[in-house]
Design a protein that fits this description.
6 strands; globular; 8 helices; about 220 residues; Rossmann fold; six-stranded parallel β-sheet; about 50% helix; alpha/beta
Length: about 220
C-alpha cells in the first residue's frame, strides 16, 4: 500500500469513529408534558380555544356553574371536568378553601408542567389561581399562569377582586397578565360582543410565545 492510499484509509476510519459523537450531539427537541387547566368561565373558554390549536397535552376544566359544567363534561376534547358548588352565606371562606385545596391536589398530583388559565375578578378564577399556584410553588413544580385583568366596563367589584392577586404576583416570572383595557386599545374597532373571545385568542398567542422557553 502506497502512502497516498494509507492516508486515505486512515481518514475514512477516523470519520467512522466520529459518527457516534455526531449523532449524540444532534439531540431532538424534547417537549415537556403540559397540563392546561381552565379556571372558571373565562378560563374554560380560553381552555377550549387552546384545545382547538394544541394537539398534545392534558386539558382540565373547573367551574362553579353547574350548567356550564354539564356542557364541558360532554365535550370529548376535554380530558376531565370538575365542578364545585357556589359558596353559600353559611359557609366560611376557610371551608370553601379546604374543599378547593383537596380537589386541586388530585388535579396537580403529577409532574407535568401546569398552565393555569383564568380571568381575574371572579370567585373561581381568582381563588383557584391563588390556591393552586401556592401548592405548585410548595411542591416545586413547573407552572405558568396566563390570566386576564377585567375590562373597566365589568365594574369595580371584579377590579377589586383582582387587585390582591396582582399585588402578590407582580414580580412572579411564572405569571403573565393581560390587561383587558390595554389590549382593547390596540384594536379601537373591537365590538363589545367580541371583547372576551379576543382575549381568549390573546391568551393563546401569549402561551405560544411562552412555551418556547421550555423546549429543550
Amino acid at each position: 500500500m502506497n502512502r497516498k492510499d494509507f492516508l486515505k484509509n486512515i481518514s475514512a476510519v477516523g470519520a467512522i469513529a466520529l459518527l457516534p459523537k455526531i449523532e449524540l450531539s444532534a439531540k431532538p427537541i424534547q417537549h415537556p408534558k403540559f397540563h392546561f387547566i381552565g379556571l372558571g368561565s373565562a378560563g374554560n373558554k380560553a381552555l377550549l380555544e387552546f384545545r382547538k390549536h394544541i394537539v398534545n397535552g392534558t386539558f382540565t376544566a373547573i367551574n362553579i356553574d353547574l350548567k356550564e359544567h354539564v356542557v364541558l363534561s360532554k365535550n370529548k376534547k376535554i380530558d376531565s371536568c370538575y365542578w364545585h358548588k357556589k359558596r353559600t352565606e353559611e359557609e366560611s371562606w376557610d371551608e370553601i378553601k379546604s374543599q378547593l385545596q383537596e380537589q386541586s391536589y388530585d388535579i396537580t398530583n403529577t409532574n407535568d408542567h401546569f398552565v393555569l388559565l383564568a380571568g381575574l375578578g371572579g370567585v373561581t378564577g381568582t381563588a383557584l389561581l391563588t390556591i393552586i399556584s401556592s401548592m405548585l410553588q410548595i411542591e416545586n413544580k413547573k407552572y405558568t399562569i396566563i390570566c386576564t385583568v377585567p375590562y373597566n366596563f365589568e365594574g369595580t367589584r371584579p377590579s377589586l377582586a383582582s387587585y390582591q392577586f396582582i399585588k402578590e404576583n407582580k414580580i412572579n416570572k411564572n405569571v403573565n397578565f393581560i390587561f383587558a383595557d390595554t389590549f382593547a386599545k390596540k384594536y379601537p374597532g373591537l365590538k363589545m360582543i367580541d371583547c372576551f373571545s379576543a382575549l381568549d385568542t390573546e391568551m393563546l398567542k401569549m402561551w405560544l410565545q411562552e412555551k418556547q422557553k421550555f423546549e429543550i
